[in-house]
TrEMBL record:
It is a lipid-anchor; GPI-anchor. May be involved in cell-cell interactions. The gene is MDGA2. It comes from Odobenus rosmarus divergens. This is MAM domain-containing glycosylphosphatidylinositol anchor protein 2. One of its GO terms (molecular function) is axon guidance receptor activity. Residues 707-808 form the Fibronectin type-III domain.
Length: 1025
């Protein structure tokens, strides 16, 4: 088995991606037997081997590198690894991993503890965070946020996108942002980053004075405090000036500078003790955050003089102000003192000022006032000296509303009827604003009525029943029958009166409630409009109150009680939740003030059966069996239920439920005639519930593989190729996939170019299929559509966009750079060296190049391939240096309980040919509070006209860079070149290491051979990152 796997690797490394044997595209499928997580690594090695430049054999971290000559221990460990990996049989399917990267525009990036990252950005800038994910199928991404304030909501929603972009970021948007990725395999992957928004508001200086009392006439002290406050993040640093003089603690005996207790740098107070003539001056407070994020300092000035005083104001209006609706009102506020001149603002005690308000300095005008505009309005004067001055007035808008009455029979008798010779009371009530202006007038049959011994008119105590008047008729006589009218009015006028008529006669009787026999129980169907009815008799007819009698739930309008003037409750769009008992009862208003009369109405809501599944798609191949089942969840009435099965319009089966809650329909052997939509209708008196089954032989959509290692390569200028990979979702669900239809079109174009890809044999679950797209124009993007084909026909299509993209710095697992891209893989020139490295290919080099030095081709032997080199011709001098810096690589956070740091295998090819070759050095630069450069590798002298390969293990403890330093030799025949720089997580393979080039302190000690099986076993049995 080890020999076979080694042969697979060798054949993969021997294949060049550019060799298509005259074909435009190349199709390659991964061997199913080698497609676990480790097997995915093997497949990636095969893909990497397809590059124009054959990269060094990757030292896969945490996995066994198969070799024919491995000893017995290595062979046993490898065999155990393959067996354990094969248990899952999931191919390249893998749970998600996630990492957050930023746009690089932050002011400062800090690494805290082992995993927390802080992203600092200036307020108003654009925040851009990208969630880099791996895993197959492609994980779904969701951004959420928790802020410093629990009430802060992340835009009341989540962002389902790889990139979170917030333009013009504000301070309240700082906090911890979480990226969650899940694809249904394993647990979701979650990473977070804390965003710190830096800002500095304009500082504000406030002045406070204290005047000491004369003590025994020995002295008189006047002390002034100048307080400077500015909102900021990070904490602000304050400094004071008097004129142009910088004030420091101790520089002037009459000046003291201090921070109050418990303020944590929020303010700085300048205390001027026992004011002196020189203290009357111009004071400046400078607030600074030390130019972080390029936030400039801000300054505010205050002129202190012997006239400095706190503000005072007065209102030129009455308090309160009583107005009629629709009138215009003007409030005037003027200052009576204060230096410097105060600013005047108007506020409202509750809520904001009305939208139609007009402000002009201290004058506030409301053109047409309404009852909603009533309230307390305050004028505030502030000049930052002492406390602000405040004066308020209350605006009252007249109103009369909600007129109602009730009749109270003789309280000394238990009879609820009105009888001759007994007492009866008529009460009348309104809501009035202001209540002091409310007056009542009584009339009998249109004539004014005055209080007398038998007709007693009173007004109820406002604390007991506000806005209420009573007419007591003592010893009711026949002549007292008639219509009594209560008129409510306001003394100020401008509001229409409310008039209430009450008829007292022999027919005036208390109410009675009944429910018509056919109105309870009341049966209706869900969705209908229904009227519940209670018949009310008596004179006068009171208001009827409806509520639920069987449970404490709201009525259809959302209230606990609904009013009805005719005893009818109308419900639109009845739902099943509305079934139950309803109570109707009389109200005391507009009727008799007696014990309420009640009646109950039962509402029964019938609804069609609720069934499951409402819709189900069933994918099955031909000649296979399928059984569909439709289950009843709820129904009323629950009996008698019938069912019918249909395929389209064709009736298949009917029947009636007995004791079972479901019905089934089997299809023993599917054929073209059996595919389609099956509907099962379950029916009762209220209607039908339907289960729908879509039975189809369509293949599931392919799943594009987004974790292909280095999918883009370039054979010619402005032309690139792309390694397209995918797996097939549930390939065994339907008939065998015989081909794929590949469609491709340039982004923005309408026309699709299509081609069929033949498939031989069965596709396994998780099997990775590779198809190489060539002749793509750089840097255009393309849409790719992939459709599986079976004997049933076309399956579901899936579309993705492929782009030519320059390398970025992801979470470092694998990095390879052949310097083919225009930005040379984000390598940069060092500004501190003497000259630069140059990107070159043999086909594009200067015709006047120096012979007998430098490479004749790139590392793969191509004349068109690029590499980096140093040109040592004049005017270069001996000893001059050219330094090339790699991108900054962010490593995985170290486990605090782990034994070692993460290992990486660093490899590259170098070319040193010529009689004047100088020195090639490689340094490891570790990022931290101080930058450290450790020598990693070095070589000098003529190595011949060939490319040489170097491998070095590195163990960085923090983010790092690699530096290639070329030093010119004594003459012009000293060109040095590098190519195919690779970094892979994990130690280098034993046979690839050049330990003689390792330097102590930068390169870790190699793991002893006897520890290797133990480490592999631990990595297998422990959870993977």
């Amino acid at each position: 088995m080890s020999v076979g796997c080694a042969g697979l690797l060798r054949s993969a490394h021997g294949r060049r991606r550019g060799r298509t044997d005259g074909r435009r595209f190349l199709l390659r499928r991964a061997v199913p037997g080698y497609l676990g997580s480790a097997r995915a690594r093997v497949e990636r090695a095969r893909l990497a081997a397809g590059l124009r430049k054959v990269p060094p054999r990757p030292p896969w971290a945490g996995y066994v590198h198969v070799h024919v000559k491995m000893d017995l221990v290595y062979g046993l460990v490898w065999l155990l690894t393959v067996l354990l990996e094969g248990i899952s049989g999931q191919g390249v399917y893998a749970p998600p991993t996630v990492r957050i990267v930023h746009s690089g525009l932050a002011c400062n990036i800090e690494e805290e503890r082992y995993s927390e990252r802080v992203y600092t950005i200036r307020e108003g800038e654009t925040l851009e965070l990208t969630c880099l994910v791996t895993g197959h199928p492609r994980p779904q991404i969701r951004w959420t946020k928790t802020a410093g304030s629990a009430s802060d909501r992340f835009q009341d929603s989540s962002v389902f996108n790889e990139t979170l972009r917030i333009t013009n970021i504000q301070r309240h948007q700082g906090g911890r942002y979480y990226c969650k990725a899940e694809n249904g395999l394993g647990s979701p992957a979650i990473k977070s980053i804390r965003v710190d928004v830096y800002y500095l508001d304009d500082p504000v200086v406030t002045v406070h004075q204290s005047i000491g009392e004369a003590k025994e006439q020995f002295y008189y002290e006047r002390t002034v405090f100048l307080r400077c406050v500015a909102n900021s993040n990070p904490p602000v640093r304050y400094s004071w000036r008097r004129g142009q003089e910088v004030l420091l603690q101790g520089s002037d005996k009459g000046v003291e500078i201090y921070e109050p207790f418990f303020t944590q740098g929020e303010t700085k107070i300048l205390k001027l003790k026992n004011l002196r003539p020189q203290d009357y001056a111009n004071y400046s407070c400078i607030a600074s955050v030390r130019n972080v994020c390029n936030i400039p300092d801000k300054m505010v000035s205050f002129r202190l003089s012997n006239k400095t005083a706190s503000p005072s104001i007065k209102l030129l209006v009455d308090d309160p102000i009583v107005v009629n609706p629709g009138e215009a009102i003007t409030l005037v506020c003027v200052t009576t003192g204060g230096e410097p001149a105060p600013t005047l603002t108007w506020v409202r005690s509750f809520g904001t000022l009305p939208e139609k308000t007009v402000l002009n300095g201290g004058t506030l005008t409301i053109p047409a006032i309404t009852s909603e505009d009533a309230g307390t309005y305050s004028c505030i004067a502030n000049n930052n000296v002492g406390n602000p001055a405040k004066k308020s007035t209350n605006i009252i808008v007249r109103a009369l509303k909600k007129g109602r009455f009730w009749i109270t029979p003789d309280p000394y008798h238990k009879d609820d009827n009105i009888q001759i010779g007994r007492e009866v009371k008529i009460s009348c009530q309104v809501e009035a604003v202001p209540s002091e202006e409310l007056t009542f007038s009584w009339f009998k049959n249109g004539r004014p009525l005055r209080s007398s011994e038998r007709m007693v008119i009173t007004q109820t105590d406002p604390d007991v029943s506000p806005g209420t008047t009573n007419l007591d008729i003592i010893d009711l006589k026949f002549t007292d029958f008639g219509t009594y009218t209560c008129v409510a009015s306001l003394k100020g006028g401008g509001i229409s009166d409310i008039s209430i008529d009450v008829n007292i006669s022999s027919s005036t009787v208390p109410p009675n409630l009944t429910v018509p026999q056919e109105k309870s129980p009341l049966v209706t169907r869900e969705g209908d409009t229904i009227e519940l009815q209670c018949q009310v008799t008596g004179k006068p007819k009171p208001i009827i109150l409806w509520s639920r009698a069987d449970k404490e739930v709201a009525m259809p309008d959302g209230s606990m009680q609904m009013e009805s003037y005719d005893g009818t409750l109308r419900i639109v769009n009845v739902s099943r939740e509305m079934s139950g008992m309803y109570r109707c009862q009389t109200s005391q208003y507009n009727g008799f003030n007696v014990k309420p009369r009640e009646a109950l109405v039962q509402l029964i809501v019938q609804y069609p059966p609720a069934v499951e599944p409402a819709f189900l798609e069933i994918r099955q191949g031909q000649d296979r069996s399928v059984t569909m089942s439709c289950r009843v969840l709820r129904a009323y009435p629950i009996r008698v239920l019938t069912y019918e099965w249909r395929l389209g319009n064709k009736l298949l089966r009917t029947g009636q439920f007995d004791s079972q809650e479901y019905t089934e329909y089997p299809v023993k052997s599917l054929s073209n005639e059996n595919y389609g939509v099956y509907n099962c209708s379950i029916i009762n008196e209220a209607g039908a519930g339907r289960c729908s089954f879509l039975v189809t032989g369509k293949a599931y959509a392919p799943e594009f593989y987004y974790d292909t290692y280095n999918p883009v390569w370039q054979n010619r200028h402005r032309v690139y190729s792309y390694s397209l990979q995918w797996t097939q979702m549930n390939p065994d669900a339907v008939d065998r996939i015989v081909a794929y239809r590949l469609g491709i079109r340039q982004a923005g174009q309408q026309r699709w170019w299509e081609q069929e890809i033949k498939i031989n044999g069965n596709i396994q679950k998780g099997e990775l299929i590779t198809y190489n797209l060539t002749e793509l124009i750089k840097p255009e993007a393309y849409e790719v559509r992939l459709t599986p084909l079976t004997k049933f026909g076309e399956g579901d299509s899936t579309i993705r966009v492929i782009k030519y993209s320059a390398p970025v710095n992801p979470h470092l697992r694998e990095f390879h750079c052949g310097f083919e891209d225009g930005n040379i893989c984000l390598f940069t020139q060092d500004d501190t060296d003497n000259f630069d490295w140059t990107k070159q290919s043999t086909a594009t080099r200067n015709t006047k190049y120096t012979p007998n030095t430098g490479p004749n081709a790139d590392r793969s032997g191509s004349k068109e391939g690029f590499y980096m080199y140093i040109e040592t011709s004049r005017p270069r001098l001996e000893g001059e240096k050219a330094r090339l810096l790699s991108p900054v690589f962010s490593i995985a956070p170290k486990n605090p309980y782990g034994p070692t740091n993460t290992a990486y295998c660093f490899s590259f090819f170098y070319h040193m040919y010529g009689q004047h070759i100088g020195v090639l050095n490689v340094y490891l630069r570790l990022k931290g509070q101080t930058t450290i450069e450790n020598p990693l590798w070095s070589s000098s002298g003529n190595k011949g006209q060939r490319w040489n390969e170097a491998h070095v293990n590195i163990y960085p403890i923090t983010s790092f860079q690699l530096i290639f330093e070329g030093i010119r030799g004594p003459g012009i025949e000293g060109d040095i070149a590098i190519d195919d720089v690779s970094i892979a997580e994990g130690e280098c393979a034993k046979q690839d290491l050049t330990t003689k080039n390792s330097v102590d302190g930068a390169v870790g000690i190699l793991v002893h051979l006897w520890l290797f099986p133990v480490i592999v076993l631990i990595s297998i049995l422990s959870p993977r990152r």
